[in-house]
Amino acid sequence: YNMNLFELSSNWKNLYELDSEDMEVFNALLQVDEAIEEKAVNIAYVVKKLEGDAETIKKEVDRLSALRKTNENKQKRLKEYLWQNMAYLGMEKIDTPLFKFAIQNSAPSLKITDTSKIPLRFQKLEPVIDKAAIKESLKNGEEVEGARLIQGKHLRIR
Fold first, then answer.
1. H helices within 18-130, ranges in order?
2. For labeling, which of 26, 59, 94, 141 is most exposed (least CB within 10 Å)?
């Protein structure tokens, strides 16, 4: 059978709905069953390959992220090194044909020293929904307005 899974499923359903005891229909059903199983196996191979690819990509992203972080830290250390030496020598500016360097004031930054003393008008209070508690209550038969349990299905390939 050189058909896609949808076509095979449609053929299987049509043959099954014939409700015939004819041996040819039975054999055709078996052939379509085998073709569907073959398609399922092929799909499983592709899924497993994609899972492996996704894991490889994730590892590469992690590796590149670590490399980026190392690069950023080197940049920071080199700038700090130059800044410290300029400050030590009392040099506020260095002008070269390629670059201009200047020690200048940064924008003010905020440091919170005691969060308990910050007035409420400066705090954002957002409700946090305890989904685990709601799910447990619903499982125990309790009604929770605005929430319900949904039983989904998924395909497991082993």
1. 23-89
2. 141
